[in-house]
Design a protein that fits this description.
translation release factor activity; protein biosynthesis; Prokaryotic-type class I peptide chain release factors domain-containing protein; 3-stranded antiparallel beta sheet; 444 residues; 47% helix; alpha+beta; 9 helices; Alpha-Beta Plaits
Length: 444
């Protein structure tokens, strides 16, 4: 009996395929009813208020019905593709749909097999329960370890399956144009200083990710602040990581320099981050007749940093009123080329924005527009805290956070996973809305 059990255990182990389980963390706002408080660091100095894990969506009844619906569709497609009388055009359509569902079906099959393996291990555990024999106790320990390992694999596969439901964004691999713009408040120097710190933070994040960071425009302000800057960031999946950074960022602090510092009280200021994707291939036709090109002398703090020639360039697209300027080099030609690149990116974003607005109008009425004019995050220096208002994520050690390293990466990952959850739920809700007329006729 013992030999038989061991043989079955070994054969079971050989069948179990270990999943990497790693997953991308990550995107938009859901109900705060599902928020749970989780200790994030062992030091206890910082904590994170986070939504439940992405894999937890697997337990949602609506999600399970949606998965069953997709698996049924995959089985139907497999049957239809076996028919020899299909036309070539119909077969191509079916193959395309079948291919799209194949990764999901493979994960689903892996989960079913893992559940069978788990049931077999638990059956062996039940049969060996109560035995006092040393060898049987050793076997029981091995079975418990196998049970834990298969259970962990099932959780990883469920998360992988949910991630397979997340719609892909074709722009995720794009490079970006990132702009930081100072807000306006009484004592605007606090906004300008914060804008410069945000610029430094994203520069630090680019170095942390090993991305290229090319400054296109940089307009400094007094007391070491920054009015506006535009940079091009290039690297692996830059837009995917930074696309949710666009929006209004709020700062609360006692200013260290400038006019506001004399009052020695907490001031509130804002700045705006703008993220514009720059796909590898995108063509925005610009008629030269629609452009007004102005030249002027570079602005700055004075001294040698200011040009004595009209090398700075501002380009205005007359039909839309969109402008772009560059004063980074002493070459008017180079500044003009850079300004045109910025203008093309802004025009492309405008075209994209119209499509998104038409598609998401109904959704925006329920959860907000999530446009870049909305406050997305607060940096409270007095309380040493950064709070993301979309997810409730809270982190401490603000000076470390502003370096743009691991702490910022963790927050970005949390926001990305959050929006992935929403994307899945939107797909599920859309499926429910499409089926609602049929359920109404059934008299349920």
């Amino acid at each position: 009996m013992l030999v038989s059990c061991r043989f079955r255990l070994c054969s079971l182990c050989s069948r179990v395929v270990h999943s990497s389980g790693g997953g991308i963390r990550g995107w938009r706002t859901l109900n705060y009813a599902n928020m749970t408080e989780v200790q994030h660091w062992s030091t206890g100095a910082s904590k994170r208020f986070s939504h439940s894990d992405l894999g937890e969506l697997y337990k949602n009844e609506s999600v399970q019905r949606y998965l069953e619906q997709l698996m049924e569709e995959h089985r139907d497609l497999s049957k239809k593709l076996q028919h020899v009388y299909l036309s070539e055009s119909d077969r191509k359509v079916l193959i395309k749909k079948h291919t799209e569902l194949l990764p999901l079906a493979n994960v689903f099959g892996s989960i079913e097999q893992a559940l069978k393996d788990l049931e077999e291990v638990r059956s062996l555990l039940h049969s060996s329960a109560g035995s006092k024999d040393d060898e049987d106790e050793h076997l029981t320990q091995l079975l418990k370890e196998e049970e834990a390992e298969i259970s962990s694999k099932i959780l990883a596969l469920r998360k992988e399956m949910i991630k397979a439901l997340v719609p892909t964004d074709p722009l995720d691999s794009s490079n970006i144009l990132l702009e930081v713009v100072s807000g306006r408040t009484t004592g605007g120097d606090i906004c300008q200083q914060f804008t410069r710190e945000m610029f430094d933070m994203y520069q630090g994040f680019a170095y942390y990710k090993n991305w290229d960071f090319e400054v296109l425009n940089y307009t400094p302000a007094e007391y070491g602040g920054l009015h506006h800057a535009a940079v091009r960031i290039a690297g692996e999946n830059v837009y995917r990581h930074l696309k949710h950074e666009g929006g209004t960022h709020r700062v609360q602090r006692i200013p260290e320099v400038g006019l506001s510092s004399r009052m020695q009280r907490i001031h509130t200021g804002t700045m705006t981050v703008i993220i514009l994707p720059q796909p590898v291939e995108f063509d925005v036709h610009i008629d030269p007749k629609d452009l007004r090109i102005d030249t002027f002398r570079s602005r700055g703090a004075g001294g040698q940093s200011v040009n004595t020639t009209d090398s700075a360039v501002r380009i205005v697209h007359l039909p839309t009123g969109i402008t772009a300027e560059c004063q980074q080099t002493r070459s008017q030609l180079q500044n003009r080329d850079t300004a045109m690149r910025v203008l093309r990116a802004r025009l492309y974003q405008g075209m994209m924005g119209k499509e998104v607005e038409q598609r998401d109008t109904a959704r925006k009425q329920q959860v907000g527009s999530r446009s870049q004019s909305e406050r997305i995050r607060t940096y409270n220096f007095s309380q040493d805290r950064v709070t993301d208002h979309r997810t409730g994520y809270v982190t401490r050690d603000i000076k470390e956070f502003m370096k743009g390293g691991e702490a910022l990466d963790d927050l970005i990952s949390d926001v990305h996973e959050h929006t992935e959850r929403e994307a899945v739920m939107e797909a599920v809700e859309s499926s429910v809305r499409l089926k609602r007329p049929d359920s109404g006729r059934s008299g349920e």
